[in-house]
Amino acid sequence: MKSKPVWQCEVSEFDWYYDLEETCLIIEGDVTVKYGSESVSFTAGDYVVFPKGLSCVWQVKSPVRKYYVFK
């Protein structure tokens, strides 16, 4: 099995723009992602797809780790 890169981040808030589609599996942590007037939260075990062109704000509420792949 091919290993996937791991990304980690401490509690923080930051703007992010996806210039490629990203798929990821949250390993640990608690994150809310805001886009426009909407928001969605993720925790350990969630599988997420971020579409190319998405502009959002990440709110990392507890330290997060995730496997990720850009397409």
Terminus-to-terminus distance: 18 Å
CATH superfamily: Jelly Rolls
- Supply the CATH class: Mainly Beta
Shape: globular
Q: H/E order of the elements?
A: EEEEEE
Helix share, percent: under 10%
In percent terms, what proportion of residues is strand?
over 45%
Rg, alpha carbons: 12 Å
CATH topology: Jelly Rolls
Low-confidence stretches: none
- Indicate the CATH architecture: Sandwich
Count of helical segments?
0
Question: Mean pLDDT, rounded to whole units?
Answer: 95
What's the story with the biggest beta sheet?
Answer: 6 strands, antiparallel
Structural class given helices, strands, pairing? Answer: mainly beta
Count of distinct strands: 6
How many domains in all? 1
